[in-house]
Amino acid sequence: MTFQAYLDTIKAKTGLGPDDFRRLAAEKGYLEPGTRPKVILDWVKADYDLGPGHGMAIVSILGMHEGAGMSDDEKFDAQFAGKKAAWRPAFDSLVAGVHGEVLLASTNTYISLLSGTSKFAVVALSGERMDVGIKLKSEPATPRFEASGTWNAMVTHRVRVTNADQVDAELLGWLQRAYDAVK
């Protein structure tokens, strides 16, 4: 789901747009320095029944997150900063292994892989590993392709890649099926 799709869904569900949420947050004192994103997430859950993904879209429009004001390119580049830079070749292989046009959208914590406007996977990086989340409801979890659980509610499976050789035919096959499923 693209950021705009999140905003459209929020508007359809609540009748409120970004300016409305900025005004309401200001009235509640939530735009004050030091307000944590969890406060906003709790507020929009309680008052508007919005889940964490939509809540983070509200946090983003309020400019209350790390990286607020960064361009998309800057957010993407930041994903591969420091020790995480070693994962760039494996990430590039992962994306290149999907047959079709893969669009990338970065947040401050992960990169979404999209087919058009539909998310089929996410990648989160650390110095030690590359976590690949795959949205593929038709597949049962396996020891390697574990259920995503609370790691990321936007995907169904999680693969913990600890070395570049693990970007193999099996992982690419799962990604291809996820890509094909959202077309």
Structure description:
The chain is an alpha+beta fold and 183 residues long. The protein folds into two domains: 3-61, no CATH class; 72-182. It has seven helices and six strands; from the N terminus they run ααααααββββββα. Strands 1-2-3-4-6-5 form a six-stranded antiparallel β-sheet. The model has no long low-confidence stretch (mean pLDDT 90).
Task: Provide keyphrases for this structure.
183 residues, alpha+beta, 2 domains, six-stranded antiparallel sheet, 7 helices, 6 strands, 42% helix, 16% strand
Task: Summarize, please.
Helices cover 42% and strands 16% of the residues.
List the helices and strands and how they pair.
Layout: H1 3-14, H2 18-28, H3 37-48, H4 52-61, H5 72-79, H6 88-96, E1 103-106, E2 111-115, E3 118-125, E4 130-134, E5 146-147, E6 157-161, H7 169-182
Antiparallel strand pairs: 1-2, 2-3, 3-4, 4-6, 5-6
pLDDT average, as an integer? 90
Give the biggest beta sheet: 6 strands, antiparallel
SSE class: alpha+beta
Give the low-pLDDT segments: none
Radius of gyration: 17 Å
